[in-house]
Write a structure and sequence with these properties.
By secondary structure, the chain is α/β, with parallel strands linked by helices. It contains 7 helices and 11 strands. The protein has helices at residues 27-30, 39-53, 82-85, 112-118, 131-144, 171-184, 193-214; strands at 14-18, 57-62, 95-100, 123-129, 148-152, 156-157, 161-162, 168-169, 189-191, 221-222, 226-227. Helix 2 (39-53) packs parallel to helix 7 (193-214) and helix 5 runs parallel beside helix 6 (171-184).
Length: 229
C-alpha cells in the first residue's frame, strides 16, 4: 500500500460512504471470509472527523433489483448499519443520501457528480463495501470524471470469491488486487485511514492559519480566548 506522508485533504473534500448496509453484516456473508476486521471502526473515525469539521458527507445506498437479494427494497438488509444510521444528519456540513441500483455511486439519485460540482468539490475519499465492487467502481468512475480520488483501503472490506476457472481467492487477495488496479492505472491514491486522519488535522491547521493571515493578524485566535505563542 502506498504511504503518503504528504497527503493533503482539501477543506471541502467529500467523504463518500458506499453501501454500509445491514445485509453485508449477515453471518452468511462473514462465513465466506471477509477482509479488514477493523473497517467499521475506521469508517466511524472518518465519519466523525468529517462531520466534526464540516466537510461534506455522502451516504450511498444500494437497492438491488434482484428478488432474492438481501439488499432489495423493504428488506432489513437494505437499511444502513446502525453506526451509519445514527450519524445521518449529524454533521456540521452538507450531507447527501444517494440511492442506486448499480455499482457506482455516481449513477444514482440524486446525481452525485452534479451535487459535488455545484459545491465546488474536487476531491473525494471513498470508503465502504465491497472493496472490489461498489467501492472500486465508484473510485474508478470518480477518477474518470476528473475528481481527485483517495481510497483508504482499510476503511473498506470484501469477501472471498471464486473466479471463472474455479480458483477461489481470499478476501485479502481480492483487496490487494483492487489496490493494484486503482494505484497502477491511476484511478485513485490508495492510502491508510491514519494517513487521511493525519492529513485532515494538517488541513484544519492550515485553514486556521490562513484565516488569521486573511484577517491581518499573524496568528488566528484560539477558541477559548487564547492565542498561539
Amino acid at each position: 500500500m502506498q504511504t503518503l506522508t504528504a497527503l493533503r485533504t482539501a477543506g471541502n473534500a467529500a467523504l463518500v460512504v458506499v453501501d454500509v448496509q445491514k445485509g453485508f453484516d449477515d453471518p452468511v456473508n462473514d462465513s465466506r471470509g471477509r477482509s479488514n476486521p477493523d473497517a467499521e471502526r475506521n469508517i466511524k473515525d472518518l465519519l466523525d472527523r468529517w462531520q466534526a469539521t464540516g466537510r461534506p458527507v455522502v451516504f450511498a445506498r444500494h437497492t438491488s433489483l434482484a428478488r432474492d437479494s438481501f439488499l432489495r427494497a423493504g428488506q432489513v438488509g437494505n437499511d444502513f448499519q446502525d453506526f451509519v444510521q445514527e450519524r445521518l444528519g449529524r454533521g456540521a456540513g452538507p450531507e447527501l443520501v444517494v440511492d442506486k441500483t448499480v455499482n457506482s455511486a455516481f449513477i444514482g439519485t440524486p446525481d452525485l457528480r452534479d451535487w459535488l460540482e455545484r459545491a465546488g468539490v474536487r476531491q473525494v475519499v471513498v470508503v465502504g463495501i465491497q472493496t472490489n465492487g461498489c467501492v472500486e467502481t465508484t473510485a474508478r468512475m470518480g477518477g474518470n470524471l476528473g475528481f481527485d480520488v483517495v481510497v483508504p483501503l482499510d476503511a473498506t472490506y470484501t469477501f472471498a470469491e471464486t473466479g471463472p476457472d474455479g480458483e477461489r481467492l481470499s478476501a485479502e487477495e481480492i483487496t490487494r488486487a483492487t489496490a493494484v488496479n486503482l494505484h497502477a492505472l491511476g484511478f485513485a491514491r490508495v492510502v491508510r485511514t491514519a494517513d487521511v486522519l493525519t492529513s485532515t488535522d494538517t488541513a484544519q491547521a492550515d485553514a486556521t492559519q490562513a484565516e488569521g493571515r486573511h484577517a491581518g493578524r499573524p496568528d488566528a485566535a484560539v477558541p477559548g480566548g487564547g492565542s498561539r505563542g
